[in-house]
Predict the structure.
Amino acid sequence: MTTKAQPPPPPRPRSRSPIGRLRQLGSGWLRTFMRAKRAPYIVLLIILILFPFIDTNQGHIDVAQDAGRWILLALGLNIVVGYAGLLDLGYAAFFAIGSYAYAMLASGQFNLHVPFWILLVASAFVAALFGVILGAPTLRLRGDYLAIVTLGFGEIVPRVFRNSSKYTGGVNGIVGVDQPSLPHVLGFPGYKFLFNPVPYYYVILTVLVVSILLIVNLRNSRLGRAWMAIREDEVAAASTGINTVTTKLLAFAMGASFSGFAGTYYTAKLFLVTPESFSFIVSVTVLIMIVLGGMGNIVGVIVGSLIIYFLISYVLVQLPGWLTSLQASVNLPFLNNVDLGAFAQNSKYLIFGIILVAIMLLRPQGLIPSAQRKVELELGIQEEAVADLRGSA
Amino acid sequence: MATVLETRGVSKRFGGLLAVNDVDLRVEEGEIFAMIGPNGAGKTTMFNMIAGLYKPTSGQILFRGKSIYPIREFWRNYTPLLAGYYTVADRARRGLGFGPMPLALRPHAVTTLGIARTFQNIRLFSFMSVLENVMVGEHCRMHAQVYDSLLRTRRAVSEERRVEERARDLLKFVGLERYAEEYARNLPYGHQRRLEIARALASGPRLLMLDEPAAGFNPQEKAELIQLIQQIRSQGITIFLIEHDMKLVMQISQRIVVLDYGEKIAEGPPEQVRNDPRVVEAYLGKSA
């Protein structure tokens, strides 16, 4: 046998068989999560739970909860792009659908006041439904063509919300959306969230933890394997017995449902929703987050989201100020006539773009790549495999 | 012997090119059936039609007596009073639904029926592990629903365990158990061919279609392949293969069909086909 003649395979950098390690543990995903290997994550979770007590600055907590919302969006898109390999440029559409689902059902718009907690789950289903509806026409498309169609949907959905002003408040959006509150049951006094970011922080933290657990489960399941098979080679996947239509639709639905969570949460936090919040730049930003962090890797996606969020909400905001004070302290005569601060203010996205180009040149595989992409880029297979991935994207 | 696969007057036209012209085939249960012919004779097109990747322009394909492509039976299928070709029990078992059958089954449904295939140019899931490749092959035999996958229910976990065990057994069967955790793309060429066979076997087929399984093999690897094919056959799986290596084909197949320019020019046991003047002509050209 040639098998015998072969040298043993080199040791793998990382165990590739989570299923193998899981199988001794019996069922129960909680137990899975509590394994010793997860210890760092548990420590991190405890720190995150205690964070509002450690840092009582409400501004910081507000930033943290907003970052959490972006992470949730990125995790959802990661299912579609990272796992199933379907390049979706219109992801903000599902975010918009989740947001409007909450705004329309919990405000004075139709005088409906469904509780936040019910809608948090329900709008995920609504978004999933729209994921299927918008995903269905794209099923025959691949790669670039798929990206164009999803881009189209990303433009259509906010426009529909803007133009059907009878139902959605048009350009002004829906103002005065219900705030979440805990009901007073069983002697519990009840609690209104109002403007305090701390309860929102706990909501998004809980949603994130649950989402991550669900996504980890998906990754190592029948469905997750089917997604990856489609990403690798759609024809082979179909010939292996995978129903590519339902599997791709499920990817769209699952990805959309997480942005449904995010949308509901976002609207409830702001008390209002306007069509301007769902522009193309939102879709692109989320895509950048997962590409930068490392497609298909949950930790990578989270880290990528945090970095991009930090860039957008802190660096780019502070940059004009920094430049102005730098200019003042350096005090070079030829700089006196140039307003660097205003330049930075006006060319925010130029600078953002340059930073992105730099990061991608330095680390094309993403910061924490999933094992797949890493091998693919490091071994330099290049054209063939990349073209393969692109073809199935 | 029962007929596993039958094609009746199958033709395929690509624009002006008639790739397959009115071909009748019968593959009997338990045999090794080979299809040979010069390049461009329409062999792979034939495979793709059977596997559901192409729809035939005309003709029918029957698997175990039931039509995969109920083209002539279209109205019969779509008329509620006429039951169609699938019995209720069959539909339930195969998860085909109870509506009218589609005009042609899609590839995954063909695989679910019990026809598995390999590809001429190997098509593995390169960036998944060898084990995962085989586990994907078992997809159509698994029952985990979306909520099972999401919540990792008891049912899903026990199924995962069973599937992984079966996948490891299959890897052992083709001699790749040591590479289970390796990426499929890191395997040497010969092992990739074996892995593709293991993945195809994972779907639990009755008919295994191999598209040039020995392409690029050295004599030793060919001998091993012959052994493997015979082992598969001894498990009751019918084998239908395309192969260019005449020695291998003559050695293992019970019956051979020869295609040339999309038409069937000969069919029969190896010695008969070898001496058929039309076959000699197709391969060597007309003698002056």
Chain B touches chain A through 62 residues (CB under 8 Å). Chain B has two domains: 1-69+205-288, 115-204. Chain B has a mean pLDDT of 86.
